[in-house]
Q: What sequence folds into this?
């Protein structure tokens, strides 16, 4: 399987996040992707290729223009005031506050975010445009006839909606890939999110569309991040009604329950008649993950890949979450190797 990867992700290294009321080092850090790349190489998964530069058109196909342009100049505007520390949003336009876009860069960061998990750093723009290029290059590989591709994207993307960031995510790499597959001739794309957290951003982007079926298996938002989306009764709207499927599972659910949800999701994908599949591949479902509460073991990740392969679809994997850094490569690459068994 081809892996698409760029070192540009390393330019995005946030200094801190707020966790349990404490400022702690970011869970989402460059070592995550470095470990996955090392495992890709050690396991001889296949060629590792740099992305092509596709410019902003594929990003603008799923994101709001003002949102994209904000990121393009945000660091320059933040740092020209003499600030050399990351910017973090810390205020949100909640109920009854006006949805006006402020002029100040800090106000705009708040306007365009849903939480404080998205530091703006000197290299954020290079990293997020690099990740988008990785996703598009992998999609183009499928469009040229390949059976599978791994987009080793960092930072992750699935919490990023059309016009907001959050949960370590800026541009929605998997959504960008799905849109690219559609534009390139796939009539129906299924996008299955197996990260521990609900893919609220991806759901937002495709909620009113029937040409991309979004499915997500995740910790129940009644107790788990991102709290405000991911319930089973969110099934799409307008033309998209019936094309959004959430499989929330109580935190602490068994591995058997998780695989039952995977089987149900796969059956939905079959019934849909997808001609391409995108997987938002988070491995924070791992039993040793520091911020999540499912209990998949190393071998379970092989089983995920095997089950997905049975769908028989051209499949692109986009890397998302996973915060147990030492085993992150084994877990992610096990899915890919299971797919190829
Ligand atoms: C891409 C991705 O996986 N983003 C995840 C963002 C999660 N951010 C907030 C996590 C809060 C977890 N709180 C757990 C408390 C356990 N004591
Ligand atoms: Zn996650």
A:
């Amino acid at each position: 399987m081809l892996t698409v990867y760029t070192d540009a992700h390393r330019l995005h290294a946030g200094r801190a996040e707020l966790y349990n009321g404490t400022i702690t080092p970011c869970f989402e850090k460059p070592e995550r992707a470095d470990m996955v790349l090392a495992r890709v190489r050690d396991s001889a998964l296949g060629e590792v290729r740099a992305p092509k530069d596709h410019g902003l058109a594929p990003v603008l196909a799923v994101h709001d223009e003002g949102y994209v342009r904000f990121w393009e100049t945000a660091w320059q505007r933040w740092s020209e005031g003499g600030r050399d520390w990351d910017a973090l949003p810390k205020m949100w336009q909640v109920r009854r506050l006006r949805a006006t876009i402020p002029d100040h860069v800090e106000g705009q960061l708040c306007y365009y975010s849903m939480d404080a998990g998205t530091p703006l750093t000197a290299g954020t723009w290079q990293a997020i445009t690099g990740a988008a290029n990785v996703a598009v290059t992998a999609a183009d590989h499928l469009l040229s006839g390949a059976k599978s591709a791994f987009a080793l994207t960092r930072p992750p993307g699935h919490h990023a909606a059309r016009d907001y960031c959050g949960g370590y995510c800026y541009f929605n790499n998997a959504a960008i890939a799905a849109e690219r597959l559609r534009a390139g001739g796939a009539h129906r794309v299924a996008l299955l999110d197996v990260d521990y957290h609900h893919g609220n951003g991806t759901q937002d982007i495709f909620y009113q569309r029937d040409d991309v079926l979004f499915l997500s298996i995740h910790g129940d938002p009644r107790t788990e991040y991102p709290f405000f989306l991911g319930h089973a009764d969110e099934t799409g709207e307008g033309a998209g009604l019936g094309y959004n499927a959430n499989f929330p599972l109580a935190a602490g659910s068994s591995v058997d329950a998780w695989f039952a949800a995977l089987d149900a999701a796969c059956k939905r994908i079959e019934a849909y008649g997808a001609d391409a599949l995108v997987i938002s591949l988070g491995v924070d479902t791992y039993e040793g993950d520091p911020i999540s509460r499912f209990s998949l073991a190393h071998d379970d990740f092989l089983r995920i890949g095997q089950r997905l392969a049975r769908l028989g679809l051209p499949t692109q994997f986009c890397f998302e979450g996973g915060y147990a850094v030492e085993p992150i490569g084994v877990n992610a690459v096990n899915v890919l190797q299971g797919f190829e068994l």
